[in-house]
Amino acid sequence: MAHTDDEGDERLAAEGEVAVARLAIDSGDLAHAADHLSDAILADPQLPELHEALAELCAAAGGPGRARELFPLDGEVYLGTVVCRAHVEAAAGDWDTAVTLLASAIQYEPARPWAHAAWLAREDLPALVDPDAVAQAAARAAGALPDPLPAELADTVRPFERFLRAVTARHPEHPLLLAMASGLTRRFGATTRAVELAERAQRLAPGYLPAVMLGNALRADGRPEEALAVWEAELARVAPGENDSSGYLAVDVAELYATLGRPAEGLPWLERVLASAPDHPKAAPARHGLRHAVDGDTVHLLALADHHRDHPDHEYAQDLLERLSRREPWLGMVSGATEATVNVLHQVLGSAGAGRDTEIDCTASAVEPPSSVLAVQLALPRSTVSYRSVGDPDPRLPLTEPTTRIWAWDGTDPRPALAAPAPASADLLRATAEIVWPTVPAAYDHAVRLAGLPLDDLLGALVHPPMPREDDLGRALLAHQPELWVRAVQSFACLGIAHHRTDQPWAGSERRRVLRDLLLGPEDWVVEAAGFALVAIGWTHPETRADIAGLLRQRLHYSARAGRSRVVTILRSYCALVLAAPWTDRADRELARRLLAEADGRDAGGTAAGTGPDGPVGPAGPGGATAAPEATDPRTPRGQRPRPGLIRRLFRRPR
What we know:
58% of the residues lie in helices and 3% in strands. By secondary structure, it is mainly alpha-helical. The protein has a 3-stranded mixed sheet, covered by helices on one side. It has a two-stranded antiparallel sheet with strand order 3-4. Strands 5-6 form a two-stranded antiparallel ribbon. Helix 2 packs antiparallel against helix 3 and helix 24 packs across helix 26. The longest helix has 22 residues. The radius of gyration is 31 Å and the shape is globular. The two termini are 34 Å apart. The C terminus is likely disordered.
């Protein structure tokens, strides 16, 4: 098989370490040789010369039994030392220790081919090992593996699974071995066999561990109701507090109910755990997750973030928050755009032969957020956008008199009111901006690298966004959905402003003043970006929430009023932003939900969201945009649907 460049480099590194080790063996410096072999085995575990040198080292030490001390396992242990020690133990005939150490290496770094060891494939090895030791090793190896295993990991771990299968066949009445074998077998996708192994273990020795493994196998085999029955029977057998592990099983029961679409039935199991163990590291986060599954309210996601801030050792709260935020607008990704100008841009970019030299003249019936022009010019720099009229109320006017202005208008033509950022600042922002993020607090923390940029540069980037990064995602965004990149740059520039002069108390700070000006400024994507930065501050600094709620309310109520007489293209996305700040007043959240429901109703009915000054305007786009665009490029087919988005909702099976 041909080696990749990385594999070739690793082999060369391993060969160099082996060469130095052999020189050290020849000079009698065996400890030095052992260090180099430990490095070599990390680089290329299957290098034949390495194993030859390891045998030479054992011989020089007086046999493998004496060579053990060259690979000590006390104190902080190096992974290469563990693997070399496993091979030395195998050479010494201590098979149980060798298998256990090899399992530890798989647990620590499963992507490496540790299990591809000649001695592990010995036909007589299953008769030479203690089934108890193998069961413990299987638990160690499987515990860190994903379920199911991706193909590349399955290839590296498969020799260990074959060995475990052979040992299980030799000891078919060993309950612990059967239960642990079920766990590893399940990860290889053999769910029917995993159920059989766990059922046999449960018959031989009914108890907590076999019940857990049987439920996991049944769930993986597509039999969740049977898994619930097994787990609930085991929990009924154990009194609350009798088994410390039973709390984790109750969490699994509760979350399985949620997977089945019945989260309310899972909540009592979590209440039972918390009644006896209020600080349980998984039950409290799981309760927030199930409550979110019941009503969809973001308040439960905020509770997860607050819980993790108060209990940083409860990593499950962070994991759950990431899972529930994934691909949700503003919670885990930048929200999409709905302007008619953007819809035309998608049509042009989706047409045959379109490229950066394509020139279009796009006319919309009414003024749209000027940042949409940035998206057009980012992808098609020779193109122009113009507007026929201005709606009422005038979207070009700020809600309050600001001290920060980023746009100027020549009639209906927008132009940046600020200079472009310095090249170094633009490069840092380009490297920092993302269209997706794990959680709102994670996005806020990620943007801290922008804290040292001049405020003028952060503001300038809002109207002079740098080009996307030159990677696969950046090229795809530029070719298909450049508006997402513009919105990502604006969002992270505003997050950078959120980190500006954090030594100043919030109430009178410059960062609050600037973000407020942007939030209440002319109708634009920058409004949403500033709103997102304020929401992120509220998620991470609870003391600011009441003030931020008031700021968000002003924009929400203005947009709701404006939407009665004209199209407000940012309204849907802004409502999602308000709902991402669940500390806002209940009435404001209800208003945001109602406005979203009305927009969904208009979309479902295929009706326009409003009318222009000259009568009905064009058909609504995917998000309810209702301007009437005219693409004069003859290559743009009329009526062509916009290209499907790059970001699709992903669903991950719970582990």
